[in-house]
Amino acid sequence: LVYLVDAYDQERFAESKKELDAxxxxxxxxxxxxxxxxxxxxxxxxxxxxxxRFHLGLSNFTTGKGKVNLTDSNVRPLEVFMCSIVRKxxxxxxxxxxxxxxx
Length: 103
Ligand SMILES: Nc1nc2c(ncn2[C@@H]2O[C@H](COP(=O)(O)OP(=O)(O)OP(=O)(O)O)[C@@H](O)[C@H]2O)c(=O)[nH]1
Hints:
Layout: E1 2-6, H1 13-24, E2 34-39, H2 49-55, E3 78-82, H3 91-99
Parallel strand pairs: 1-2, 2-3
The structure holds guanosine-5'-triphosphate.
Guanosine-5'-triphosphate binds near residues 43, 84 and 86.
């Protein structure tokens, strides 16, 4: 699952968190890897990765970038990557991270 959040639209972080929480607690998605993309970082004052993680309540839930083997762990892969769709940057790393969990 790829969840794209506008990192500049801070007023809607609470709404984003609510939607994300609903997806995270959906039983039919329990084993689905989650890639959270924080978009629009080309705009000054967009939230940083840490800020976004905090506002989405993910500070203690991300499972690690790079190659992390979670096969026997019962832990759902979840990571935050910052990106700018208009600048064509950042999301490649995110999708690469995600691809290791797709069989
Ligand atoms: N600066 C910037 N603008 C972007 C980027 N990606 C998309 N946009 C612009 O954002 C606008 C659409 O984005 P949103 O308004 O967030 O679109 P949306 O998700 O359909 O809208 P909501 O459902 O209301 O959240 C367009 O004008 C895009 O050009 C980006 O990486 N940087």
